[in-house]
Design goal:
This protein is α/β, with parallel strands linked by helices. The protein has four helices and eight strands. It has helices at 11-24, 70-76, 113-117, 125-152, and strands spanning 7-9, 27-31, 41-45, 56-61, 64-68, 79-87, 102-110, 123-124. The strands form two sheets. The chain has a five-stranded mixed beta sheet. A three-stranded mixed beta sheet has the order 1-6-7. Strand 4 (56-61) and strand 5 (64-68) form a beta hairpin.
Length: 153
């Protein structure tokens, strides 16, 4: 049985994400727990913001990680997050869609008891970074092994 997803996006949100991707390249999403932007989801260029070690990834929007403040996740861990977009200026500032007169928002839906039993796993940022380091080490070892093969051959 397929796992219950914690995250989805409306067609309107996906269209805007594709537009932002064309303009800015790789993206990421972050939803804070109340600082600066309130709890409005932020769309940022990948690598221009680093989640904290306990922050949680609940899935991806078009292959772009969606991170949530760990305290906010604890509050909403029993809910599905649907990324949506509205016309108009949201709470402000950092998110890439703001200058386009748009603002991302989340529609929350509580999971049923059955859905809660079958949720996709979450991942904390420190686990994500360990996976990235392990992948880089595997690539490094493969490249090094290949270099040794060609040097000996």
């Amino acid at each position: 049985m397929e796992k219950t997803k914690r995250l989805s996006a409306t067609p309107k949100a996906l269209k805007l994400v594709k537009k932002l991707e064309k303009e800015f390249g790789e993206l990421m999403f972050y939803q804070a727990g109340g600082c600066c932007e309130g709890t409005q989801p932020q769309c940022l260029r990948k690598g221009h913001f680093y989640p904290r070690t306990k922050d949680v990834s609940i899935g991806k929007i078009l292959d772009y990680d969606f991170w949530i403040d760990h305290n906010l996740f604890e509050y909403w861990k029993n809910a599905h997050f649907e990324l949506d977009v509205l016309d108009g200026f949201g709470t402000g500032g950092f998110s890439l869609e703001i200058p386009k007169g748009k603002t991302f928002k989340i529609n929350y839906t509580l999971f049923s008891a059955e859905e809660l039993k079958n949720l996709e796993p979450k991942m904390q940022y420190h686990e994500f970074m360990q996976q990235q380091r392990d992948q880089q080490n595997t690539i490094y070892r493969s490249v090094r092994k290949g270099a040794l093969f060609f040097a000996e051959g």
